[in-house]
């Protein structure tokens, strides 16, 4: 089976085997990454008769790979995977490597031990120490982390920047800003994320300035990070980036605007949502609609897909309506109920010639997914006319599905036909 299939099936045994035995470092690295992403599944109860849970076996395998794998990238990926399993998993690795038991120490004492690990000879221990310090979040270790922003190993600098972002200490912004202009791109990405997570005015200014840099890669990095801010201030910068000369920057800006909706604090959510819609309505339609459709087609992140579905119905018009409708019709059958609802609601805002007939054919097709047909009935209740009223009257009489019948009556009641049941698209 492919790694994708192993990930989908949460096959820990085979993934561990790939991590331990594959001769291809790319496969070992990817296996480590997948094992990290499956952390929640590894917490499930072990199968009957197996005294150890998948979590125990995965952590053991990752600890071994973090120390012994011949590839720098695999060792780094294994450490990052351990991070996803929590502080205990990281401390097991650090304890193995340093010979010091951290289990019973108070948090502040752990922080001191880890801070000493930042200067260890082994770069993997420095990486793990930085990652652990970011998890503990003690302010008194910020200066020790800042000192390691000049570590000779870029993998360490990357995790130091990530730790400073987790701690969200404003005092680290000047040092992060300096490295942002000097380091290699892989480190700059984490520095940009750290500045966004810290979110102070000077951190925001740094990202805004770089979003206008001559270097295309730097512009993309800054635009990517701005999506983490969840603030009105970032919206205008990202909207301007939608007209960037570089396609990668334009697409990243659209992804960031969608992500920003997810990051917005509750007390500013409505304001940010309205600001984004206003900016996107003023932007070139092709620069907006196509990336939103791409998110629906390709993204695996639920929050991104929800927001893309919501936005698409509010910014698509004229030449992009047909393409937006195609994407939303397919998204109405999404496994995530909220994404499905947003797609149906957005589709109801994009009525045009042919949509009513298309949805009626979908509803009447017994081979299509029932969830998709339910959402189509909801949209028909919003946009349908005499044709819908006549055909749905016949449909509710012959369908064997109680759910479709109920939603058919709901649509008919909204169209002034038979029935009195009302409700949302679910």
TrEMBL record:
GO terms for molecular function: oxidoreductase activity. It comes from the Archaea. InterPro entries: ARM-like, ARM-type_fold, PBS_lyase_HEAT. This is HEAT domain-containing protein. It comes from Natrialba taiwanensis DSM 12281.
């Amino acid at each position: 089976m492919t790694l994708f299939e192993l990930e989908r099936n949460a096959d820990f045994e085979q993934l561990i085997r790939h991590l331990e035995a594959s001769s291809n470092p790319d496969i070992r690295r990817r296996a480590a990454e997948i094992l990290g992403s499956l952390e929640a599944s590894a917490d499930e109860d072990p199968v009957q008769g197996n005294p150890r849970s998948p979590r125990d076996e995965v952590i053991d395998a990752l600890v071994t790979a973090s120390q012994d794998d011949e590839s720098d990238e695999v060792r780094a990926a294994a450490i990052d995977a351990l991070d996803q399993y929590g502080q205990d998993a990281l401390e097991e690795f650090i304890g193995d490597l340093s010979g010091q038991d951290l289990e019973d120490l108070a948090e502040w004492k752990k922080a001191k031990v880890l801070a000493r690990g930042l200067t260890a000879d082994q770069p993997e221990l420095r990486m793990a120490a930085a990652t652990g310090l970011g998890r503990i979040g003690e302010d008194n270790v910020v200066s020790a982390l800042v000192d390691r922003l000049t570590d000779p190993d870029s993998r360490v600098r990357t995790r130091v920047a990530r730790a400073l972002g987790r701690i969200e200490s404003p005092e680290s912004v000047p040092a992060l800003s300096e490295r942002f202009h000097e380091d290699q791109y892989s480190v700059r990405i984490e520095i940009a994320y750290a500045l966004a997570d810290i979110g102070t005015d000077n951190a925001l200014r740094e990202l805004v300035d770089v979003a206008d840099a001559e270097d295309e890669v730097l512009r993309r990095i800054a635009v990517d990070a701005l999506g983490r801010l969840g603030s009105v201030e970032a919206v205008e910068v990202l909207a301007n980036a939608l007209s960037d000369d570089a396609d990668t920057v334009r697409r990243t800006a659209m992804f960031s605007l969608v992500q920003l909706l997810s990051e917005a604090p509750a007390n500013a959510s409505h304001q940010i949502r309205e600001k984004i819609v206003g900016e996107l309505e003023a932007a070139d339609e092709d620069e907006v609609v196509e990336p939103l459709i791409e998110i629906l087609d390709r993204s695996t992140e639920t929050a991104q897909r929800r927001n893309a579905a919501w936005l698409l119905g509010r910014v698509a018009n004229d030449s992009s309506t047909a393409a937006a409708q195609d994407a939303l019709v397919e998204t109405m059958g999404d496994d995530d109920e909220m994404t499905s609802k947003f797609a149906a609601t957005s589709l109801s805002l994009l009525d045009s010639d042919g949509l009513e007939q298309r949805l009626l054919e979908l509803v009447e097709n017994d081979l299509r997914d029932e969830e998709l047909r339910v959402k189509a009935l909801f949209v028909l209740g919003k946009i349908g006319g005499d044709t819908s009223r006549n055909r749905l009257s016949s449909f509710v009489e012959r369908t064997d599905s109680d759910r479709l019948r109920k939603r058919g009556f709901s649509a008919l009641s909204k169209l002034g036909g038979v029935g009195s049941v009302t409700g949302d698209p679910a």
